[in-house]
Structure formats: C-alpha cells, structure tokens
Amino acid sequence: MAKRLRAERGCGLEGWRSYTLARPKRSAGWYVVGLPASLVLLVVAHAPGRIVDLFAGDDPDSPPLAAETARPTQAPPAEATQRPTMDETFRGSPAASWASGAAGITVPKAGRSAG
Fold first, then answer.
1. Number of continuous H segments (helices) and E segments (strands) in the chain
2. pLDDT digits (tens, 9 = 90+) for 42-64
3. Are 113 and 107 in contact (CB under 8 A)?
4. pLDDT of 81-99, one tens digit each?
5. Distance between CA 39 and CA 34 in Å, rounded?
6. Global pTM value
7. By the 8 A CB rule, do 44 and 38 touch?
8. Residues of 36-53 as b/e, b for ≥16 C-beta within 10 angstroms?
C-alpha cells in the first residue's frame, strides 16, 4: 500500500504540513502614489509658510496690511515698577496678589456628589 501511495505523488495528495499560503498580490500603484504624497506632506510639515506664500495672491490692487499685523521688531516696553526682583519674584503677575504659605491653600466645601 505504501508503495502505491508513493507512486501516486502527483495526484494531488499533500501532506498536512506541505501547504503554503499564496502570496498576496501587491499593486505598484500604491508605491507610485504613496512616495510622492509622503514627500509633499514632509515638505508642508517643515515649511508651511512657503506653501502658503505660493497660494497667496500678490495682487497689486489689494489694500496694504494693517499696522498690527506686521511682525514686531523688538520686545514690548515694560515698566520698571512691574519687573520682578529677587525680593519680590511675583511682582507684575497675577500671583502677586495670592496668599502665601498655608493661607494660600484652600479646600473646597464638602458636598454631596451626584450619583
């Protein structure tokens, strides 16, 4: 019987470990589209201003930008009386009016919870 089975190898009988999965078909189209798309996204992520400038029209008839939209050239002036010092580190900030130490710690009133 074993001799007959060995002779019939080509009849489609396969061992239980001899099956191999078929390779999935891959389309080259995804690579052709995906690579340029990822490069475009990379350029937009690193230089979004240049991309916006490409689509912003330089119409000579358009009104000029308002003064407050111009990029600042220096820091805003600060009053010397509002600058913090080593003795008063919170001068000029909202934290200067907060209570210090244990007086600054507040616990909410206990109440009934919904549920």
1. 3, 0
2. 988 988 888 777 777 666 666 66
3. no
4. 777 888 888 887 888 888 8
5. 9
6. 0.30
7. no
8. eeeeeeeeeeeeeeeeee
End-to-end C-alpha distance for the chain, whole angstroms: 77
* Residue 30 DSSP one-character state: H
Sign, CA torsion 51/55/60/64:
negative
Report the phi/psi class of residue 110: left, alpha or beta, with left for phi > 0 and alpha for psi in -120 to 50. Answer: beta
Amino acid at 34: G
Tokens of 86: 């080593």
Residue with token string 């340029």: 36
Distance CA 97, CA 77 (A): 23
- Interatomic CA distance for residues 98 and 24, integer angstroms: 67
Report the distance separating Cα 49 and Cα 69, nearest Å: 16
What's the DSSP call for residue 99? P
